[in-house]
Amino acid sequence: AIQIALQQAQQRQTVLETQRRSRLLELNKLMGQSAEQEFVIAGELQLQVLADMSTFTLEKALARRPDFAVAQLDVIAARSEQRLVKAERFEDWRIGAAYQQEKNVVDGAPPQNVGQFIGLKLSIPLPLFDRKQGRIRETVALEDRTQETVEALKLQISQELADAQQRVKAFAPLLESYTPEILKRAEDNVKLVENGYRQGQASIVEVIQSRQQFAELKSSYIETLVEYQRAVIDLDIATGIPPGNVKTEQPTKAQTLRLSEQESMNIGLKVEVVKKRPIDGKETITVPVSAVVVEGTNSFVFINYGDRYRKQRVVTGKRDDRYVELLKGLNVGDGVVSEGTQHLLATLTEVNKP
């Protein structure tokens, strides 16, 4: 049973690593970066319940949506074109007047009479009955089409808004059911079973089962939180509100190394799972002292993802002779390099040389 559970965990880890790489490729594509570009997402995914839904109304959405404003401008342009064509349906008639004086002079002859001519000129374009009826009908059809586009877009926005509102209202109570007490109780249960195993009162299978239950509960919470955040973003977009910017810290140098199993063994890498341990009587996330690399005023660790090792900035707190408290940068369950960090740092420095 232990071997089966271990194999299932390894398979699950492989699947998750594949999904992670796929998400990174998708993010790089959306951000216009190369497929190999590395970046670190800053911040935490937290529940922010929308207390006031009055902002997300159809009237406000129609006033904010740029695509709806463009559709309305198309209607105005079509009407203006129609008025212009109607104004030009009769060609201009032109009328003119002319005056001409003629006088003949003959040497040695008496003065001649002066000839005077007055003329009128009227220009009538032909054909007389061409009043651009075809062009007028075309502009009328254009106005009808643009007006129908506005109505269709209005219906689409209404549907998008209703769908996003329904999803937000559906996921909010689900998230509220994942109270901190429930998650804390599940985590405490894992610790209780682990202590029982150390004292010989619980089997390794029970330890694995308790960890799986906690992981599944936390995974379910995160998935629900992700769906809720997507619904909130869709609600913002449907209402014409720019979604909150995702802040990323984009390193200018490579932050990840890929090593084969043999290369890892050659430089003596050792990976430990991040756990909570007591420091000054308080349970907190810790890593071995040897796992932390200090560069100037910044502290880093190397996180292990299969055959990759990523340099991750962390914020440290208290420490004792063996362990360092981590205030930010890692989570329980992450794999961190505890031995061989200097070899990884030297290799990374060599890779980043110009």
Give a written overview of the molecule:
With 354 residues, the protein is α+β, with helices and mostly antiparallel strands. The chain is 49% helix and 22% strand. It has eight helices and 13 strands. Strands 5, 7, 8, 9, 10, 11 and 12 form a seven-stranded antiparallel sheet that branches. A hairpin with a 2-residue loop joins strand 9 and strand 10. Helix 5 packs antiparallel against helix 6. The protein is elongated. About 2% of the residues have low confidence.
Quickly give the structural class.
alpha+beta
> What distance separates the N and C termini?
51 Å
Rg of Cα set: 39 Å
Low-confidence stretches: 245-252
Q: Output mean pLDDT.
A: 80
How many strands, which pairing sense, and closed or not: the largest β-sheet?
7 strands, antiparallel
Strand content: 15-25%
Proportion of helical residues: 40-55%
Count of strand segments: 13
Shape: elongated
Outline the fold blueprint.
Layout: H1 2-30, E1 40-41, H2 58-64, H3 66-87, E2 94-103, E3 114-123, H4 133-177, H5 180-198, H6 204-239, E4 248-249, E5 256-258, H7 261-266, E6 270-273, E7 275-279, E8 282-288, E9 293-295, E10 298-305, E11 308-319, E12 323-328, E13 335-339, H8 341-351
Antiparallel strand pairs: 1-4, 2-3, 5-11, 6-13, 7-8, 8-12, 9-10, 10-11, 11-12
Helix pairs in contact: 3-4, 4-6, 5-6
